[in-house]
Every structure is written in structure tokens, then in C-alpha cells.
Write a structure and sequence with these properties.
single chain, about 650 residues
């Protein structure tokens, strides 16, 4: 984590709060402005008078996704909030965490419904906490708004995620966010130090003729790497040797290794409306004509650093003497689009044209024994595509298509379509299809290392993915079904080399959720069934994953000032040959020696007091008296009995 940057951000953040905490909220007529400063009051009392348009409601505090879906800032306490109270701030049901927060995750399930258009740099084990374009949020708030998440680390450290957003005008919003973690971990060489900075903005003119939004990100992920436990140390763990209950006493495979993944991005999109109309559903021949431009420039880099290579789990080393082993990728994309509504297309159509260029490069040859002939992949491409959105009564239809012709590494095609039927508040049915053809990630095509076995230059075929999905949500049950086929599936084999599977992967995933309530008790159940009918030798998942949470919920004390959630979560997955983690590659590889599958029980005591949610969690509470068979990956034990505390605090000035 960049400490000077983090301290500067906190000082700036504190200054903003100090400034706005002096504001005195008055009701009054304001017109189109959200905030207006009365300069006369500053000299007299040191306060800023803020006038608002009437009373504010929670629905005034809006969050916009990348696809412009609208939600609201939610300060309630639910069981879903408990599932998301983690470093990623997402429900990790399909992930298997390593023992320390800030480390990577193994996969219990896969999601192919959101495949990206172009190949990526790779090193996927480092990118679970990387925030992509579609994960950046935009805001519209009538008053300055802040959210702070705090969570204790493991042994030493903490997680802090801070958000500040303000509307300088009803049509101009700016938000600043920073998520930082520093957690020591229980085992040697497991320190995690990460930082995610996000700055977002959006603006529109009074008649919405011109719109602009965008964001800047700077993200860095540093991890010490242990290489897991040697065989002798694993035995001490599994037999529960009382001399090694302090896990830092166990030896590890690597004493001086670490890896670093960094990323930065500049993104903005803007549009100008040439023809205005109140028609939003396509009843007219032609209306709401817009021209738009989208710019993206994203840089990612990765490096593995090891001070000495005399004894290593990676094999023989022949260092060329290069000082920098960093690999860097840059992707720049300019999109031009034309958007309009028409009854002839049943809604909105947006044809688009993209100009893309990329580089993926090392500075020099890193290994004297390497047969690699080049250190750089680079190219350009032109893509054509369109987005379509329509609504017919209770049906919504959406489609996104893109074609990149030619024979470059960016060549490929992408088609995603979905149909949604919504019956009032009773139920929703959704069907989706995805067809994707693109090159594998760049690190499978070209990779260098001072270790002899980690140098390759490949010319792989495009990976072809087809996903058919169905989802049903209602007050009775929520369920989803995905059927996926993959040709030329690319993976890392038992020897840590990238390979392409010559046959087809056929993968079925069925997931269902249902909560039962009785008075103040509730039982929330999520079950996932998976089957790999073809390709199970290289594509491995547990057959069954289940999570069952029994909890008590009620208001405490006179006047109901506190809402509490108290309960336990049971999670279990059947045994499977989970992939092994390779810290040099920052990838998961096949292994055939170890099966992993076990239950865990976590306790929690959560409470809400006004706009503050408090969380007290006890992880793996049964580890003290059950079999020591809990691993996140071969050689990497899952966490022992651990107590965590944290909170999420919102305030609206």
C-alpha cells in the first residue's frame, strides 16, 4: 500500500468532513441546486448555510451502476449484509478464502455470464479484489454523504473502506473512495497490504442535452508469499501438535518471496443529444438522437520478487542479471457511438465503433537459458457492434454484440442477450445467452522468469465460450441455472505450464436460495449443485456447496434503538481435487494428490444503531475440537478459530 498516498487521502477526507460538518441544514426553496452557500454567514459565525429543496428521503440518496441501474444507499441490517461484510464486500459463497484477508481465493464455482470482450494480462489470483469498470459506482445525493467500513485484521492490521460523495449541484456529483488493508496473518510470510483508490464524477446539463461521467482508479496489491507448508509441517498441523498451535512457528517453503500487482485506469464517457424528445419507449419513428464517445486507458503490471534462488520450490534458476522482472500491459480504447429511440427497433439502439490498441511487454530477457525470441506482444484492432434495449409490456429485452475481425490477438466476437419478464412484485423470470470468442490471457502466451521452467511463448487458439442461463426470483424461492460449453479451455497443468484442453468443457451449475421465518427466528439456505460431464480432468469443482444460517433477529431495549442479528452459519462443500496455488505465476494450477472438502461453522453477533452496523464474528468456531483437515488449497491451511470486529457507519450531513 502506498502509505504517503493513504495518509494524504485521509487528511483530505478529514478536511472535507470538517468543512461540511459545519453546515447548518435549512429547508427552503432552492430550485435546481442541491447545495447553496450563503457567503454572508461565513464571516459572522464560521458556519455555512445549506438550503435544501424540502425534506430529503432515503430515495434521494442514489447509487448508479455502470449500466445505469439505480439503487439507494442502504443503512439497514440484513443477513445479506453479514455475508458481504468482508474485504471484497461481496457475497463469497462461491469462493474459498485463504486464511488471511487480502490473500487470494480458490474457486468453489465459476461464473461465465460476464466474460470480458478482450483478453487480460492474467495473473488472475491477484485480481479478486481488483475493481473493474463495471464495479465503479456513481452517486447523486442531496447532502454530503460518508460511509466508513472498518474491520480488524488477522494478528495485526485492519481494513478500512472510506467513501465521501457530494453534489455541488443537482447535476454535478463527485465521489472519492479509498479501500486499504494491512493484515499480518497467522502464518509466516502471509502479510497482505493493498490499496484501492477511486475517484468518480458525473455531470449533465439542465435539459440533459450533454452528459459526462467517468472515474480514475489507482490500485496496488502487495503480498508476501510463503509457498505454503512443507510436508513435515503439514503433518504437524493435521495431527494438531500442541507445540505448533501458534502457527507462526511452522516453517514455510519460501522465506523471501513476494509479489506485486498494480493497476491504474482513466475512464470517461460523454454524449450530446442532437434531437430531444420525451419519448423513452420507442413510440415515435425516430427520437432522442445522441452521439457519444467512450475513452478507456488501463495499465496493469505484475512482478514476482525473490531475494535468493539457491533453494526453491520452482526448480533451477539462471538469472540474466536484469534488475526489473516486471511485466506490464496497457490497453487503450476509443469508442464512438450513435444512440436513438425508434418504434421500428422497439426501443433503443446504439451502434458503436471501437479503436483499440494494446501492449504486453517485459523490458528484457530474464533467463539466460530462455529460448524466447521476443519480449513484447502488441497490436491494434477495429471493432464494430451495437447495443439494443427494448420493453414490451412486462418484458425487457437487452442485447450487446461486438465483432473484431482480423487475425490479431484482439480478434474475436461477443454476443450477450437477455430477456426478462417481471410480474409486479410477485416474481421475475430471466433468460440469458452468451457467445464469446477471444484469445487467452496474455500470460499464457508469453511469460518470463529467472526460473527455467517458467519461460514460454505460445500461439494458442481462441477460447470459445457459450453460456445459457435462467433465473427465477420470487418471495418463495430464488434459483438460477447455467449451462456452459467451452472450447480450447486454457489452464495451467500439474507442471505449472499453460495448456489448452483439446476436448470440450461441459459445465452445469444449479443454485437456489430460500429463507424460512418463524417469529423472531430465521433459517437462510443456499445450495449449489455442479456437474462437469465433459472435461472434469482439467475443470474441477465440488459437486455440492451449501450454506445454512440460523439466526435470531429482534429490536432490543425500550424504544427499539437497536436491531440485532445473532446466529451461526454452517458451510460445507464436498471433496474435490482443488487447484493448487502458485505464487510465482499468481495462478491456480492442477494437482492430483490432495482432495479438499470440509464443513465450517461461524458465529456472529450483529447490531444496528441508527445508521451504524456493528459486526462481531467468530470464524471456524469448531476448529478447536474437529479434525484438522481444513485447507484453502494444497499446503495452505484455512484459518483457525478467529474473532473479528468491525462496523459500517453512514452519516448524512
Amino acid at each position: 500500500m502506498n502509505k504517503p498516498f493513504f495518509l494524504s487521502f485521509l487528511l483530505f477526507f478529514s478536511g472535507l468532513n470538517l468543512l461540511f460538518s459545519q453546515a447548518r441544514i435549512n429547508s427552503g426553496q432552492q430550485g435546481d441546486d442541491f447545495i447553496r452557500v450563503n457567503n454572508d454567514s461565513i464571516g459572522n459565525s464560521g458556519e455555512i448555510t445549506v438550503k435544501l429543496s424540502g425534506k430529503t428521503k432515503y430515495t434521494d440518496y442514489k447509487i448508479f451502476s455502470h449500466k445505469r441501474d439505480t439503487t439507494f444507499i442502504d443503512t439497514t441490517l440484513t443477513i445479506q449484509k453479514d455475508y458481504k461484510f468482508n474485504y471484497l464486500r461481496t457475497d463469497n459463497f462461491e469462493l474459498l478464502a485463504f486464511h488471511n484477508q487480502g490473500q487470494t481465493f480458490n474457486n468453489l464455482g465459476y461464473n461465465f455470464s460476464n466474460v470480458q470482450l478482450f483478453p487480460d494480462i492474467g495473473f488472475t489470483a491477484k485480481q479478486f479484489s481488483y475493481l473493474d469498470i463495471d464495479e465503479i459506482k456513481y452517486y447523486e445525493v442531496p447532502t454530503p454523504t460518508t460511509e466508513i467500513l472498518y474491520r480488524t485484521g488477522l494478528q495485526q492490521g485492519q481494513v478500512v473502506d472510506a467513501l465521501f460523495t457530494v453534489n455541488f449541484h443537482k447535476r454535478l456529483n463527485v465521489s472519492l473512495s479509498y479501500k486499504g488493508i494491512r493484515s499480518l496473518g497467522a502464518y509466516r510470510r502471509s502479510l497482505a497490504s493493498h490499496g484501492n483508490f477511486r475517484g468518480a464524477f458525473h455531470y449533465r446539463t439542465k435539459e440533459n442535452q450533454y452528459e459526462l461521467r467517468g472515474h480514475l482508479t489507482s490500485q496496488d496489491f502487495f503480498n508476501e508469499e510463503s509457498g505454503g507448508l512443507p510436508t513435515a509441517e503439514i503433518e504437524k498441523f493435521t495431527i494438531n501438535n500442541p507445540e505448533f498451535t501458534t502457527r507462526s512457528l511452522l516453517d514455510v517453503n519460501l522465506d523471501d518471496a513476494e509479489n506485486q500487482f498494480d493497476g491504474s485506469r482513466v475512464y470517461f464517457e460523454h454524449s450530446f443529444k442532437l434531437l430531444s424528445s420525451k419519448d423513452t419507449v420507442g413510440n415515435k419513428d425516430f427520437s432522442n438522437l445522441k452521439v457519444g464517445h467512450v475513452f478507456t486507458n488501463e495499465t496493469k503490471s505484475y512482478s514476482f520478487i525473490q531475494t535468493t534462488t539457491t533453494i526453491s520450490i520452482f526448480g533451477e534458476s539462471n538469472d540474466s542479471g536484469a534488475e526489473d522482472n516486471e511485466v506490464k500491459s496497457t490497453l487503450t480504447n476509443n469508442e464512438l457511438n450513435l444512440e436513438f429511440n425508434s418504434k421500428y427497433v422497439l426501443g433503443k439502439l446504439k451502434p458503436k465503433l471501437n479503436f483499440t490498441q494494446y501492449t504486453y511487454a517485459y523490458d528484457t530477457i530474464l533467463n539466460t537459458n530462455s529460448s524466447i525470441s521476443k519480449t513484447k506482444l502488441a497490436g491494434k484492432a477495429i471493432s464494430v457492434g451495437a447495443e439494443w434495449n427494448a420493453r414490451i409490456k412486462n418484458f425487457k429485452l437487452n442485447a450487446d454484440a461486438n465483432l473484431t475481425p482480423g487475425s490479431t490477438r484482439l480478434s474475436g466476437s461477443f454476443l450477450k442477450g437477455e430477456a426478462l419478464y417481471h410480474k409486479d412484485s410477485i416474481f421475475t423470470v430471466q433468460g440469458s445467452v452468451l457467445l464469446s470468442s477471444k484469445s487467452p490471457n496474455f500470460n499464457t502466451l508469453l511469460h518470463q522468469s529467472s526460473y527455467d521452467d517458467y519461460n514460454w511463448q505460445n500461439d494458442f487458439s481462441s477460447v470459445n465460450t457459450r453460456d445459457l442461463g435462467f433465473a427465477f426470483s420470487s418471495k418463495w424461492v430464488n434459483a438460477s441455472l447455467n449451462f456452459t460449453n467451452i472450447d480450447n479451455y486454457t489452464y495451467f497443468d500439474e507442471n505449472n505450464k499453460p495448456q489448452q484442453f483439446t476436448d470440450q468443457i461441459t459445465y452445469l451449475k444449479l443454485k437456489a436460495n430460500k429463507e424460512f421465518r418463524y417469529k423472531k427466528l430465521a433459517l437462510d439456505n443456499t445450495v449449489m449443485y455442479q456437474n462437469v460431464s465433459s472435461g472434469s480432468s482439467v475443470f474441477r469443482v465440488p459437486e455440492l456447496v451449501t450454506r445454512n444460517t440460523l439466526y435470531y433477529q429482534d429490536y432490543w431495549f425500550k424504544g427499539k434503538p437497536m436491531l440485532v442479528n445473532i446466529g451461526l452459519t454452517f458451510k460445507y462443500f464436498t471433496k474435490y481435487k482443488a487447484n493448487a496455488y502458485n505464487p510465482l505465476l499468481a495462478e491456480f494450477t492442477l494437482q492430483n494428490d490432495t482432495e479438499i472438502g470440509y464443513p465450517t461453522v461461524d458465529l456472529f453477533f450483529n447490531a444496528q444503531v441508527r445508521r451504524t452496523r456493528l459486526y462481531l464474528k467468530v470464524d471456524n468456531v469448531t476448529s478447536g475440537f474437529t479434525e484438522k483437515n481444513y485447507f484453502s488449497a494444497p499446503n495452505y491451511p484455512y484459518r483457525d478459530f478467529t474473532v473479528r470486529f468491525g462496523l459500517v457507519w453512514n452519516w448524512f450531513i
